[in-house]
Amino acid sequence: MTVIIWIGIVLLFLLSFFGLIFPIIPSVLAVWGGFLLYYFGIEKDELSLLFWIAMAILTLFIFIADLLASSYFVKKYGGSKWGERIAALAIIIGAFIVPPYGILIVPFLAVIITEFLIEKDIQKAFNIGIATLIGLLSGTLAKFIVQLIMIIWFFLAIIF
């Protein structure tokens, strides 16, 4: 039974990284699913209170980093609130259109179109579209690094 639970934990951790490419999959929730599967299925006393607090803080950091990265770059290049909203919606829609490339292409094009309709300046709209990509990629990189830290910490916590 323990082997099956470990397979489930590893699959949840792998699923969390697929969630970085397909945002419809809640990445950090998959990581937490692995933690909880271990806690309830294998060993309740192995993971300390410090571990759980640190994971909660890192999870909060993932959410904040994701929001701030996109917003920062769009605002830095003069994007509108509509551009930010359309980018967020387009990321979700893009996950279903030519995955995984759709999460890059669809927001990029959607923001360019939105900002062009608002500003009537194609160069500015293009720059904001590029900023959207930079924000998306930097947010994804931050999530990848933090999720990797969480998973490594988990394994270190149960080994030592």
Explain this structure to me?
This protein is mainly α and 160 residues long. Helices cover 83% and strands 0% of the residues. It contains 6 helices and no strands. It has helices spanning 2-21, 27-41, 49-76, 81-94, 102-119, 122-159. The longest helix is centred in the C-terminal third of the chain and has 38 residues, at 122-159. The mean pLDDT is 90.
What do the pLDDT scores average to? 90
Shape: elongated
Report the uncertain regions.
none
The portion of residues assigned to helices is over 70%
* Count of helical stretches: 6
Structural class: mainly alpha
Beta-strand portion reads under 5%
Which radius of gyration do the C-alpha atoms yield? 19 Å
What is the end-to-end distance? 23 Å
Assembly type of the shown chains?
single chain
**β-strand number:** 0
Main pleated sheet = none
- Give helix and strand order, one letter per element, not per position: HHHHHH
